[in-house]
Amino acid sequence: MGGRVGGITSKYYWETGGIKVTGGQKVKAGTILTRQGNAWKPGLNVIGRSSLTAAIDGEVYFTRKKNSYHRVITFINIKPSA
């Protein structure tokens, strides 16, 4: 008998990707912010490349900037909690 035991089928695996937090949400260090997404870039206190993770405890906020090709890029940042 082959196949997978538990988990999620490949048919629905794409639904697990994307952004996991909203602006203003409190997160702890190590919290996954995005999965498998190149639409967001790491900003202040965020680590990773395609899967972004919180480096410190704090509040999530987003900023947008134009790159050298005049495309708008969204950065995910974390404001440290006092």
Description:
This protein is mostly beta strands. The mean pLDDT is 89. 11% of the residues are buried. A hairpin with a 5-residue loop joins strand 5 (46-47) and strand 6. It is flat, with a radius of gyration of 15 Å. It contains no helices and 8 strands. The strands form 3 sheets. The chain has a 4-stranded mixed sheet with strand order 2-7-8-4, with no helix packed on it. A two-stranded antiparallel ribbon has the order 1-3. A two-stranded antiparallel sheet has the order 5-6. The protein is 0% helix and 38% strand. The protein starts with 17 loop residues before the first strand and ends with a strand. The chain has a single domain, classed as OB fold (Dihydrolipoamide Acetyltransferase, E2P).
Brief overview:
This protein has 82 residues and is mainly beta. The protein is flat and about 45 Å long.
Topology summary:
Elements: E1 18-19, E2 26-27, E3 34-35, E4 40-42, E5 46-47, E6 53-54, E7 58-66, E8 72-80
Parallel strand pairs: 4-8
Antiparallel strand pairs: 1-3, 2-7, 5-6, 7-8
Strand order of the largest sheet: 2-7-8-4
Rg calc: 15 Å
- Can you tell me the number of structural domains? 1
Counting helices, strands and paired strands, the structural category is mainly beta
Strand count, sense and barrel status of the largest sheet are: 4 strands, mixed
User: Strand-residue fraction?
Assistant: 35-45%
What helical percentage do the residues reach? under 10%
How many beta-strand runs?
A: 8
Uncertain segments: none
Distance between the termini: 54 Å
Strand/helix succession: EEEEEEEE
Under CATH at level 1, the class stands as Mainly Beta
